[in-house]
Amino acid sequence: MLRNYVKIALRNLVKSKGFSAINIVGLALGMVCCLFIFLWVQDEKGIDNFHAHEKHLYIAYQTITSGGKVDGNYSSPVRYAQGQPPTFLLADLQTAVPEVKYQAFYATGYELPWGHPETFQAGEKKFKLEGSRAGQDFFKIFSYPLLAGNAETALKEIGGIAISRKMAALFFGSPEKAVGKSLRYENRLDFKVSAVFENLPVQSSLKFDFLFNWDAQKTKLEWSSNDFRTYLQLSETADVKTVETKINRFLQPRLANSKGVTTQIGLQPLSEQYLHSNFVNGKPEGGRIEYVRIFSGVAIFILLIACINFMNLATARSVKRAKEVGVRKVLGSNRSHLIGQFFGEALLLAFLAMGVTLILVVLLMPAFNNFTGKQIESPLMHGSFWASLVGLTVFTGLLAGSYPALFLSSLQPVRILKGVLRFTQSAIWFRQGLTVFQFGLAIILLVATIVVSRQTNYVQKTHLGYDRENLLYIRVEGALSTQKNYLLFKEQASKMPGIAMVDRSSEAPHAMGFVVDDNDGSAETNTGNDAINWEGKQKNTSVGFKPTSVGFDFVKLMNLKIIEGRDFSRTNATDSTDAFMVNEEAVRLMGLKKPIGKWVSAWQKKGHIIGILKDYHTHSLHEPIKPLIVDVKEYEYFGVILVRTKPGQTKEALASLGQVYRTLNPNYPFDYQFIDQEYEKLYRSEQVMAKLSNVFAVLAILISCLGLLGLVMFSTEQRTKEIGIRKVLGASVGEIVALFSKDFIRLVLVSILIASPIAWYAMNQWLQSFAYKIDLAWWFFAASGAGALAITLLTVSFQSIKAALVNPVTSLRSE
User: Fold this and answer.
1) Name one GO cellular component term (predicted).
2) CA dihedral sign of residues 329, 333, 339, 340
3) 465 in a domain, yes or no?
4) Does residue 207 form part of some domain?
5) Most distant CA atoms of the chain, gap in Å
6) Do 379 and 443 fall into the same domain?
7) Is 237 buried (19+), middle (13-18) or exposed (0-12) by CB count in 10 A?
């Protein structure tokens, strides 16, 4: 019997080539989408899950409550005192909290581990590399394989440095040759290679090519304003809540006495940090996990659309199979046998679709990796992939074949063999409901595509309050850290071809630091040495500032707008010692009326406000504009040199800068970053989401149209004689096309009405993650609906015109 069922299934497959092809291609496209999203989701969830002690690894975060406002971040609380290295308030946790087995600080910066690449030299070889600083237990906590050296000694010595296989190969040829060798750091300090670790796997959220000992940063290197995080490995029996309580009990006496400000430490599993890194009410909740959820939903939607195609075509074509069912029942076949037969046919199609899916996955994998910025390996050698693929195929086959199998097996043989088969109203409504559901999902994806694309374009193209075109920066380092060489560089570069203006800033414009004022002269902050105070400041007032120091030409170079007061001026001798500029947001939060002339103190300096800058963005549009306070310093030993190039002369400008740079700073490679390119990096996730949304929306529409094409093909096949009669009676091609189109258009209109409010809610929720966002305009939904209608008309018209153009004599002889 099984052999007979297989034979009949294959015959039906060959007999209805068009419908079989539509079903196979539709199912294959749905399964390809599912598999690629599955691989992407699996890769996202696999970040930081490869460490041996992953279940016991945690990152500390702090929740800060100030003035009724609750914020959170991963920074470790720090206290600064002038002239001394900062005090890390979570140091020595292993002594105070027995459940803490290992503890390690790790420094992070903006985009890069330490904030910027650093220069190393061995002999004549000189490279800029990205790395960081870490506590000596770092390699005990994390399972980064060591090729040379061991976890006990890798970061034990202040004068030691652990480097990657890549870095060892660059300087010494191999890991074995690197250990014990000396590396010149920033042309001023020598470090001895104490260990070589394997290049970090793509599943690691931490990225670095070298690590200094944590204490070396405090004792040998100049301090920086980077963000320091605390990683812990707890004992296997530790209770996380109990550990948090003990840590906070340990921390509170060390905190400054800040009235109205409270700081609490929480612990988040390391495996969750990558996907849950956004803070809500001071705790990590959202983040990339939202994209994982969204695209998991998209995968299910597209698979459902493909399965709905199969259901619709199978039930629509049930008239063709009705007599077969009737004869089988008369000959003694029971319902379970028929259900098995139709499920078998659905599974056969699903497995044929699986074959097409495998070919597409292999061919498209490189493009998918390039598209998403991933490095996902071909999954064909992994047993879990094959298990998932077979499971997906069986699920798809059973889902797609469920309704047809139950519907066809329920037909009554007496009515079938009498030729009285008619679809019940409930069967018609069910099939129409499936079509509405299918197009509703496609319309939601269309709306999502428009909204995501518009928001991504908005955040990338919106004016930030300064001109980021033709603007680049060079880090102040080496010989440029001296006042003489910096001023000489500025003077010479300003006269070179392609250069419009040169100035300096303590930080790049798109990545300014953040300091929390704490009312008492100390700061538990990422940057700064002291609190910021101002005239008329109320007790217990706490404002988080973005402080920066700049050169005299900064405002002109950045094309900032001054809405009140004046710019810094070299002709005013006191501007370097007691003048500040603030932005509109700072004025608002400080509660100043007539702010010009009011005194402000910061960086152990007291001065007066001379100008109000129009608000401009100093970070991504995910964050609201922060209050900004600016002072002028024509020279600092750190920061960046900002260069405005002349439009259309970028090539000449870079050649000029390189020439001056190499002359004045020969021991450092010439390195630069364009602000507009760095700004775009802030929206990598949104860019990937926009690309994937476009692809999935197109596929959803394509799969829906395949199903629609199949239904129209079947409808025209069933009504061939009717078309012939209508043409003989004088019906035009347009009238016949309209006859076939109206029912489908009605279903799409219902889909639009149902899908639009759902799409509005979903997109409105997604936009809440941006402080600055587009409005959900009515035309987003109108355009999506119009697009769905237009595609429906094209699909229906193609097949109905083809049927309408057939000679009516041929149509009437069709029986």
Assistant:
1) plasma membrane
2) negative
3) no
4) yes
5) 108
6) yes
7) exposed
- Asked if residue 454 has pLDDT above 50, the reply is yes
Each residue's pLDDT tens digit, 483-534: 999 999 999 999 999 999 999 998 888 776 544 444 433 333 333 334 688 8
Q: How many domains does the chain have?
A: 3
Name the residue with tokens 């009949």. 8
Clarify whether residues 216 and 350 are in a common domain: no
Question: Cα–Cα distance between 191 and 171 in angstroms, integer?
Answer: 13
Choose the weakest-confidence range: 121-125, 408-412, 623-627. 408-412
Residues 522 and 591 in one domain: yes
d(CA 299, CA 617): 36
> Given this model, what pLDDT does residue 473 score?
94
Last residue of a domain, one of 634, 665, 681: 681
Quote the CA–CA distance of 743 and 429 in Å, as a whole number.
Answer: 12
pLDDT digits (tens, 9 = 90+) for 89-106: 888 898 899 999 999 999
Residue 395 tokens, joined: 């699920």
* Residue 411 shares a structural domain with residue 387: yes
| DSSP assigned state of 561 | P
Residue 742: pLDDT band by 50, 70, 90 thresholds?
Answer: confident
What is the domain range of residue 71?
54-279
Contact in structure between 117 and 128 (CB atoms under 8 Å): yes
Q: Is residue 49 part of a domain?
A: no
Which one-letter amino acid corresponds to residue 399?
Answer: L
Burial letters for 170-190: b for 16+ Cβ neighbours within 10 Å, e otherwise? bbbeebeebbeeebbbbbeee
CB atoms within 10 A of CB 136: 22
Nearest to 24 by CA among 397, 292, 379: 397
CA distances to 313, 314, 579, 749 from 440, rounded to whole Å, are 18, 21, 60, 9
**Closest to 200 measured CA to CA, from 151, 230, 234, 167:** 167
**Residues 498 and 656: beta-carbon distance below 8 Å:** yes
Domain boundary among 215, 249, 279: 279
Secondary structure (3-state) at 162: strand
* Cβ count near 677 (within 10 Å): 10
**Separation between Cα atoms, residue 811 and residue 668, nearest integer Å:** 83
697 touches 302 (CB < 8 A): no
CB 387 within 8 A of CB 29: no
**pLDDT for res 526:** 37
CA gap 446, 443 in Å, rounded:
5
Coil, strand or helix at 173:
coil
* Greatest mean pLDDT among 67-76, 283-292, 345-354, 652-661: 652-661
156 in Cβ contact with 136 (< 8 Å): yes
Asked if residues 349 and 23 have their Cβ atoms less than 8 Å apart, the reply is yes
Query: Which neighbouring-strand residues pair with 104?
Result: 231
Residue 181, SS3?
Answer: coil
Tell me the range of 188-192, 222-226, 621-625 where mean pLDDT is highest: 188-192
User: Are residues 480 and 392 part of one domain?
Assistant: no
Report the distance separating Cα 573 and Cα 601, nearest Å: 18
Spatial contact of 341 and 2, defined as CB atoms under 8 Å apart: no
Within 10 A of 495 (CB to CB), how many other CB atoms are there? 10
| Rounded CA separation 383/721 (Å) | 54
Residues in the chain: 815
- 573 Cβ contact list (under 8 Å, min separation 6): none
Give the DSSP per-residue string, 162-208: EEEHHHHHHHHSSHHHHTT-EEEETTTEEEEEEEEEPPPPTT-S---
SS3 label, residue 45: helix
Distance CA 74, CA 105 (A): 11
Within 10 Å of residue 514's Cβ, how many Cβ atoms?
Answer: 20
Whole-model pTM: value is 0.79
Map residue 69 onto helix, strand or coil. strand
Tell me which residue of 785, 744, 704 sits closest to 301, measured CA to CA. Answer: 704
Place of tokens 């959170």: 72
The predicted pLDDT at position 523 comes to 37
Among candidates 134, 155, 135, which has minimal Cα distance to 146?
155
Decide if 495 is inside a domain: yes
